[in-house]
């Protein structure tokens, strides 16, 4: 979720019902060398309304993780989440993210180093995919790592039910989540993959037995997924989609929050990619999406809002959840 799960997105999600959020994934060496500069300090921003919030950490060498983890705890993050799931070439090409599923000794050492480095009261969690690929060796590596994680005191494991090789192509194999749940009945397990609607979230909980789910790509431009899922879990009917003015209120609030942390010339660029997803809720979604794609500056952005969100009318549920924007291939925050 690099480039997406920043403080403004988390603040909007929390306001609309998210019980917990995780910041965009950061490279360990980037965190360790991060200076208190206006351009980069927002990466460590944690506010009172942000709690509980996790910091997601990714890297190559076990030696580089401890200092970064301690710095994130000092910044105010409540949980350290280790990323063994990123499928991006930028990550795996440098022996990071999902690559570690192919070298379990290194993965386990990273878990040990981080657990030892931060205070005992700070939960350490890990996100994994179900393996590098479909081979038996990948499966064996997955279970060796997850078993060791729990033995080391890792508080929870999030499992994305695709392989690293799959990236985001093809369905997420929820049956694997059910299998993991049955093998670790007393451990905290979260599920991930193909969660684009509130109904998807509830269905994963019911079908797999995991303790919780993480809506990642499915929450981009869709912060309503949290309150909608909560309503379904309470046995209530699905709430109506947000009206055009309700959408405008959230989008404009998102813009104002981004103004607080980003350089002025970066705000509309950041919001444009979110608004391509937000547009899916609009009754004339394709036209609004096209309008946001054409945005080049803040003036353009405000013009689209003034034109397309002026009149109150019912919203609509996205016709193709998950396809409002381009496929999100994981990346990471690092120097450069």
Describe this structure in words.
The chain is globular, with a radius of gyration of 20 Å. Strands 1, 2, 3, 4, 5, 6, 7 and 8 form an 8-stranded parallel β-sheet that branches. The chain folds into 2 domains: 7-233, Alpha-Beta Barrel (TIM Barrel); 244-308. The protein has 336 residues and is of the alpha/beta class. Residues 329-336 have low confidence and may be disordered. It starts with 6 loop residues before the first helix and ends in a 28-residue tail after the last helix. The chain is built from 13 helices and 8 strands. Helix 6 (136-151) links the parallel strand 5 (124-129) and strand 6.
CATH class of the largest domain: Alpha Beta
CATH H-level superfamily title of the largest domain? Aldolase class I
The mean pLDDT is: 89
How many β strands by DSSP? 8
* Radius of gyration, whole Å: 20 Å
Computed structural class: alpha/beta
Major sheet characteristics: 8 strands, parallel
Overall geometry comes to: globular
Total domains, how many?
Answer: 2
N-end to C-end Cα span: 18 Å
Percentage of helical residues? 40-55%
